[in-house]
């Protein structure tokens, strides 16, 4: 009887582990080689479209802001966290991930509504982690304009081609 119970318990654990692996990885991961920049616009902030490589199909768009001295924005992230992200974040499941780095740089990342594969929280989190977050955290100079924020972007084809 104990062997049968152990066998059933083992099968249940294996099934749960397989289910967890299938739900947290796989379809959620993003391959940067599959993506390229579309339009990149610099104002007082930076805005960019990300497309599937070789197409005009926008899958993600984002904005990057230097929020130096914008206390309202900085305060709006207080108490916000996500176990998968190293900085305060606002996450709307399968829609957007916004993150504040070093109480200064804000990234607003949105999955395009016409690209359901990229309206995926895991993919959005993976993509936001591809920004140069360490350099953002370390920067202590004057407020940056949009064109200067390009240095922190993920390395995708199309930015300076």
What attributes does this structure have?
single chain; 161 residues; alpha+beta; 2 domains; six-stranded antiparallel sheet; 4 helices; 6 strands; globular
Which of globular, elongated, flat, extended, rod-shaped describes the shape?
A: globular
Number of helical segments with 4 or more residues: 4
Helix percent reads 25-40%
Quaternary state reads single chain
Radius of gyration equals 19 Å
Number of strands: 6
Low-confidence stretches: 4-26
Distance between the amino and carboxyl termini: 68 Å
Strand content: 25-35%
Main β-sheet, spatial strand arrangement: 1-2-3-6-5-4
Number of domains: 2
SSE order in H/E notation? HEEEHEEEHH
Sheet of most strands: 6 strands, antiparallel
Class per helix and strand makeup:
alpha+beta
Structure description:
The protein is 27% helix and 25% strand. With 161 residues, it is of the alpha+beta class. It has two domains: 29 residues; 122 residues, no CATH class. Strand 5 and strand 6 form a beta hairpin. The radius of gyration is 19 Å and the shape is globular. The N and C termini lie far apart (68 Å).
In short:
The protein is α+β, with helices and mostly antiparallel strands and 161 residues long.
Topology of helices and strands:
Blueprint: H1 2-24, E1 35-42, E2 46-52, E3 58-66, H2 71-76, E4 89-92, E5 96-101, E6 105-111, H3 121-128, H4 133-138
Antiparallel strand pairs: 1-2, 2-3, 3-6, 4-5, 5-6
